[in-house]
Amino acid sequence: MELQAEEQRTPASLPAERSPSLGMASTGGPGGSRSLELSERGAGGAAGGAHNFYRGQVSPSASAMMPLKWDPNLKVIAEGYAAQCVWSHNPTLGDTGENLFAGTGPLDLRVAMEKWFLERQDYDFANNSCDEDKMCGHYTQMVWADTHRVGCAFHLCSSMVGLGWERVSFLVCNYYPAGNYEDVRPYVEGDWCSRCPELPEM
């Protein structure tokens, strides 16, 4: 589990806090903070779709990577933790993985996902290693082949414990089962989906 913080003054060209294209719904929160709900059809669907898009972009290709499905229970866990506005990982997750992102501008979900994925530039698949002083854990959790459920939530925090910033957009994504096991690659290399299990019909 890793954290990624970004302090930026967001340019006016970026989407506003309540972008209709992401289906965000604003609700009141304590201390002047707000929760923005991610639903399966709205921003939650965008989050799941973005994860699966990036999972299909790995290099070398993966022989068996499970598609991620949106999990409302993981979303509820993410919502509860995001509302705490604490810059550290949830200590109660057990076998659930977690990625965190924080920024001082309005959250653009697509930008956050892309930043996680671009950590692959610092990851060496052959050696299963990350460049010194770099973070790769967001990327490897995103593309962990056996992970098959995801749920995300974000909260607009008036302040953030552990960062000292004000008006922080805080994104939490939870994954089941967790990835990032030591000395284990995130997936098995091979022709794309050549060893994918057959998914049962819904």
Automatic annotation (TrEMBL):
Pfam families registered for this protein in UniProt: CAP (PF00188)
Start and end residues of each stretch annotated as Disordered: 1-43
Classification via PROSITE patterns: CRISP_1 (PS01009), CRISP_2 (PS01010)
Transmembrane segments: none
Stretches of the chain forming a coiled coil according to its record: none
Top-level taxonomic group: Eukaryota
Ranges of residues in domain SCP: 50-183
Entry GO CC: extracellular region
Position of the signal peptide: none
Family: Belongs to the CRISP family.
Protein name: Peptidase inhibitor 16
Lineage: Eukaryota, Metazoa, Chordata, Craniata, Vertebrata
